[in-house]
Design a protein that fits this description.
CATH topology: Transferase(Phosphotransferase), domain 1
Largest sheet: 3 strands, antiparallel
CATH superfamily: Transferase(Phosphotransferase) domain 1
Oligomer: single chain
Strand content: 5-15%
Pfam families: Pkinase
Shape: globular
Protein name: Protein kinase domain-containing protein
Helix content: 25-40%
Number of domains: 1
GO molecular function, one term: protein kinase activity
């Protein structure tokens, strides 16, 4: 019909843990993860997708040291962001 289909591809990510490991990571790794997460969130926002549940437990670090954001279930982490802006792009930016 000429329309487009949008979706998310889910795959198992072999990982070494969540972003909680950042406390013991090098400054270089932390800066790289921050850039990867910011770039991913920016790409999602271009497609009008909100991550929403921004917190350390929702970022996996894979076996190659790359950051992956997970959990798009529509939740909100009130310890990290204001609940009043839940479901908006602003909640992602505040969480970052």
């Amino acid at each position: 019909d000429g329309g487009s289909v949008m979706g998310l591809l889910f795959e198992y990510i072999e990982n070494i843990g969540t972003l909680d490991i950042a406390a013991s990571a090098s400054h270089k790794d932390k800066m790289e993860w921050a850039k990867q997460i910011q770039d991913t969130v920016n790409q999602l926002h271009v497609m009008n997708i909100v991550w929403g549940d921004v917190k350390l437990d929702n970022v996996l670090i894979d076996n190659q040291g790359r950051a992956w954001i997970i959990n798009f279930g529509g939740g909100c982490a009130p310890d990290w962001v204001f609940e009043e802006i839940e479901g908006t792009k602003e909640v992602d930016m505040q969480g970052l």
